Amino acid sequence: MKNNIGVIGLSVMGKNLAFNFADNGYKVSIFNRTIAVVDTVKREYAGENIYPTYSLKEFVGSLEKPRRVFIMVKSGQPVDSMIQQLLDYVEEGDIIIDGGNSYFKDTTRRTKELSERGINFIGAGISGGEEGARFGPAIMPGGKKEAYDYVSEMFERISAKAYGEPCCRYISENGAGHYVKMVHNGIEYADMQLISEAYWILKNLGGMDNKEMQEVFKAWNKSELESYLIEITSNILGEKDGDDYLLDKILDKASQKGTGKWTNLEAINLGVDISVITSALNARFMSNLKDERKIGEKLFGESLGIYNGQFKSIDTSTIDRELLVRLVKNSLYISKIVAYAQGFKLLLSAQKEYGWKLNFSEIAKIFRGGCIIRAKFLNDISDAFLKDGDIDNLIFTDIFSEEIRERMDDFRDLMSRVVALGIPANAMNSALGYIYSYSNGNSSANLIQAQRDYFGAHTFERIDKEGVYHNEWNNEN
Ligand code: NBP
């Protein structure tokens, strides 16, 4: 009897996905470029459904038709190389799935190239890291719907479940699945940055210690902010290293693997404002300039009352902590709404640009389990898109416009305090600026248009009459 699916690439993700398929009753062939890994992985699995193979020919030959080949190798050239080698063995109608973090344009190209040979290709964004792969990831599959139908049952079975539903839904054609995963990662950057800004404000403006902040985060995790990232933050705040807190000993330089960069470059390409996500990426860049920040502190810190990284000008004993916690909570929640709204806005533009048909309500549902950004309020996002499917922006929906209006005074109050005191909270400030920009039908862009016409005769439209105009500007004014 042949096996149901084959997994190539047995590093962290591939190995755990293979085990997950096996746990769910599927017979899984496994293969890896470095052959020695195959037996090591086989030995790691206690059950029976894992079948080692030692050549691609043996691997492909071991699969039932149409064959399902799941590639989980390093993204980029290794994926192309593996597909190229597989072409010697796979046949028309077989399905190749790339579950890595591939760039969506590569996925679109691969889909086209393989479809010309009669091979089905599915680009599946997979989220949840090692734990997710092993016990239930969120899966965002893109490609031909008919091809997805061959794997849908298996994918849904191995995926995370949230509120009884699988965190796996067909996304749309070609690179759409990897695109949604890319936007997910951008939102993840924003979510993490916003939480770290909330922590920084509570610590420096509120003078709260880690234990006190842990209690705050615990309480928030029972509110509309309930989410995986809030939960782990509360655990992190309580983690001890000897007599001290481990968090206080961790160097403040944030790393990245570059997935947030793609989201930002794509937003620039499509002309979409994702300022909160961009601020989060910038904050990671800035965090790495530790030595330069120390130089800056010597030059500018004194005027803000900052000495040795401490805000000496802030008298935390006079702060109403209960009020502060409320202000930070409401600011964090609005900022979070804006970050997700910006991510979905990018998806909205992408759907027009690339001809996809995206179901935003269903995408929000996928994110509810398995993913790093899993959060209770994704239920509201899903409902909001279900109710207002054609809305231009998530912040315009009844649910979220109301949530924002209710909290806006607190958000403005907090941001005015942190700006005055010199506490950097650039992602939150970007969220506030985004709402401000949306809060006024008028803007200063009339002056931009005048300047462009002045130096480049780029023309402008008028508000008092139709048409396109150029003015002979008077240099002597
Ligand atoms: P890695 O991204 O570290 O890739 C290692 C695997 O790729 C090994 O099996 C390796 O084989 C294979 N490989 C390489 Br490298 N070059 C190859 C080539 N030219 N031909 C064939 N195989 C090649 O593994 P990972 O961390 O498991 O991630 C797999 C994919 O999943 C990546 O795209 C990653 O971005 C994505 N992802 C990872 C996570 C996570 O938390 N790690 C989460 C979500 C998505 P070898 O053993 O012979 O070197």
From TrEMBL:
Catalysed reactions, semicolon-separated: 6-phospho-D-gluconate + NADP(+) = D-ribulose 5-phosphate + CO2 + NADPH
Q: In which pathway does it act?
A: Carbohydrate degradation; pentose phosphate pathway; D-ribulose 5-phosphate from D-glucose 6-phosphate (oxidative stage): step 3/3
Q: InterPro entries recorded for this chain? A: 6-PGluconate_DH-like_C_sf (IPR008927), 6PGD_dom2 (IPR013328), 6PGDH_C (IPR006114), 6PGDH_Gnd/GntZ (IPR006113), 6PGDH_NADP-bd (IPR006115), 6PGdom_BS (IPR006184), NAD(P)-bd_dom_sf (IPR036291), Pgluconate_DH (IPR006183)
The cross-references to Gene3D superfamilies, in alphabetical order and at most eight, read: 6-Phosphogluconate Dehydrogenase, domain 3, N-(1-d-carboxylethyl)-l-norvaline Dehydrogenase, domain 2, NAD(P)-binding Rossmann-like Domain
Asked if the Swiss-Prot or TrEMBL record annotates the protein with the keyword Oxidoreductase, the reply is: yes
Q: Where is the 6-phosphogluconate dehydrogenase C-terminal domain?
A: 177-474
Which top EC class applies here? oxidoreductase
Chain positions recorded as substrate binding sites: N101, S127, G128, G129, H184, N185, Y189, K257, R284, R452, H458
Keywords of this entry: Gluconate utilization, NADP, Oxidoreductase, Pentose shunt
Active site per UniProt: K181, E188
Q: Which GO terms describe its molecular function?
A: NADP binding; phosphogluconate dehydrogenase (decarboxylating) activity
Pfam families tied to this protein: 6PGD (PF00393), NAD_binding_2 (PF03446)
Q: Name one GO biological process term.
A: pentose-phosphate shunt
Q: What is its EC number?
A: 1.1.1.44
The keyword NADP appears for this protein = yes
Homology family: Belongs to the 6-phosphogluconate dehydrogenase family.
What does this gene product do?
Catalyzes the oxidative decarboxylation of 6-phosphogluconate to ribulose 5-phosphate and CO(2), with concomitant reduction of NADP to NADPH.
What quaternary structure, including any partners, is listed in this protein's UniProt entry? Homodimer.
Protein known as: 6-phosphogluconate dehydrogenase, decarboxylating
Upper taxonomic classification of the species?
Bacteria, Bacillati, Bacillota, Clostridia, Peptostreptococcales
Protein's gene: gndA
